[in-house]
Amino acid sequence: MSSERPSKTVLLAAPRGFCAGVDRAIQIVEKSITKYGAPVYVRHEIVHNKHVVNRLVGLGAVFVEELSECPDDRPVVFSAHGVPKSVPAAAQARDMNFLDATCPLVSKVHIEAEKHAAAGHHILLIGHEGHPEVIGTMGQLPKGSMTLIETEDDARNYVPHDTENLALVTQTTLSVDDTSVMIDILKTRFPNISLPYKEDICYATTNRQMAVKAIAERCDLLLVIGSQTSSNSKRLVEVGHKAGSDKAMLISSADSIDWDIVDKAKVIGLSAGASAPEYLTDGVIAALKSKYDIDMQEVEVTKEKVIFRLPRKLLDVA
User: b/e for 155-185, b at 16 or more Cβ within 10 A?
Assistant: First the structure.
């Protein structure tokens, strides 16, 4: 190694990158193209990452925002974030071949919401307004069945019609710590509120946040690879900053690194959101190695072994 090159320590968070739900959703699009040929339509970005989307476009996927943009005679895939019930109903009415790539952990929240509604509860949904997952979850039930809680102030100020018949569900990609504060506020105000059997924030979101916390205090700079539209990636930046990293930034790839900021850091933390492919992490590491002498240390907090089954329609595709 050249002594003229600056030295940097890179702490590589693990787990990072793709989760089982994202991996399943991408496979559904790929195998649908293999089985049915191109084009296969996808309602909304399959996951929130332009690199993933662009690769699938190259294979023959066509991304649209609404079902009305899809022809009747081509397959359509619903994104990993989930869709309102009206969407598959409309596809069935048109006799379309549709495949649901909704993450099973999001589907679990949908089922919980339906059970709460059947029990006569009004549902409070902790989440971000306008996020596709929130739109999909609220669309499982008639309008007015759910109230969105976005902030601690929302949790403090919400006035229910009936304090004894409330239930709680959450978006799966939130900050574990921020969500727990809102849940505590609601539990204090409404002691009889029905809570999820098991927390709704998904295992992958939780694990990636744990891994970032494990390195944050040691970092001068934390780089999180992910899209600006990716909720779980943005939460990793927030978690890292709160956990002690002097500076935490979201980057889409090696091309968006601010080298002036990197130059000033001695210890760099690196993670990736659940919709960011590993080759983007490899690209950032390669870019760092091209400029600096790197001491690479992977910090692993847990191993992930979760795999989600593909839809029955695609089990015959090699």
Answer: beebeeeeeebbbbbbbbbbbeebbeebbeb
pLDDT in tens, 59-96: 999 999 999 999 999 999 999 999 999 999 999 999 99
Q: Give the contacts of 317 (CB within 8 A, at least 6 positions apart).
A: 31, 34, 35
d(C-alpha 150, C-alpha 170), whole Å? 10
Q: Which residues are catalytic?
A: 133
Angle between helices 20-36 and 50-59 (to 10 degrees): 20
Compute the C-alpha angle 95/67/96, nearest 5°: 15
pLDDT digit string (tens) for 190-223?
A: 999 999 877 788 999 999 999 999 999 999 999 9
Token output for 240: 């890292």
Do the domains 105-189 and 20-103 match in fold?
Answer: no
User: Of 129, 127, 244, which Cα lies nearest the Cα of 178?
Assistant: 127
Fold of the CATH domain 20-103: Rossmann fold (3.40.50)
CATH of range 105-189; options 3.30.450.20, 3.40.50.2000, 3.40.1010.20, 3.90.1150.10? 3.40.1010.20
Nearest to 156 by CA among 176, 186, 177, 183: 186
Work out the pLDDT band at 3, boundaries 50, 70, 90.
low
- Give residue-wise pLDDT tens across range 141-154: 999 999 999 999 99
